Amino acid sequence: xxxxxxxxxxxxxxxxxxxxxxxxxxxxxxxxxxxxxxxxxxxxxxxxxxxxxxxxxxxxxxxxxxxxxxxxxxxxxxxxxxxxxxxxxxxxxxxxxxxxxxxxxxxxxxxxxxxxxxxxxxxxxxxxxxxxxxxxxxxxxxxxxxxxxxxxxxxxx
Length: 157
What we know:
- By secondary structure, the protein is α/β, with parallel strands linked by helices.
- 43% of the residues lie in helices and 22% in strands.
- The chain has helices at 24-40, 59-68, 88-96, 99-106, 120-125, 134-151, and strands at 15-20, 48-53, 74-82, 110-117, 127-129, 132-133.
- The chain has a 4-stranded parallel sheet with strand order 2-1-3-4, with helices on both faces. A two-stranded antiparallel sheet has the order 5-6.
- Strand 5 (127-129) and strand 6 form a beta hairpin.
- The longest helix has 18 residues, at 134-151.
């Protein structure tokens, strides 16, 4: 049996962060957690790019551009969508989740660090509160997936 695991060594990786500015208090914490994770796992400051977008709805188009550029080994998406009184939550959360297609289409790992919560308090708890920092978790997943893809056989055309 051949077993492949991605390492958690980020040295030499180039990573883009795409962050939605809406609910900025929460998202800034997610960005800080992701950047801290990347640095602690060996990604150099010069190899981290941060792109701010207006909100989580706009994340997929920017993630696609960065992933398709050939300049990044992984993309980490960060945002916070909090349920309100209308169906708006469903549309924004659904659009933000389209980043999975970006990974499929480009072959570049895209980690989903967009919170989708019922309340603002739940978002805060997941952005460095008692439930950890999901930005950190998404960055770690990006490193591991990028390393795993590098270890696997290349696709043939």
